[in-house]
Amino acid sequence: MERSDIARKLANPANAFITPEEVLEQTDLTDDQKVEILRRWESQASQEAVALEEGMPGEESDLLRRILVAIGKLTGPLDVEHTGPAKEHGLPRSAIKRGE
Strand locations in the chain, DSSP E? Predict the structure, then answer.
């Protein structure tokens, strides 16, 4: 895969993929690249969830849960009890315990 194609997918996963499960199916990405794409998508989805909580227009979905499930399939169980300090409670890198 070309470097610019990976950069595009990393920059806006929601535009590059229809579902988090589609990321898992990509044979041209390494597991590390898939995890990073899903982490960035998780961050975007968390921000959108906060915006909905604060009354911004939009629809609730199970996207955030599906992203976390997809990350867990690549890395094993996630430590979702310890979230980031920001209001959107993004998934910190320490929550991903690869190889344990």
Answer: none
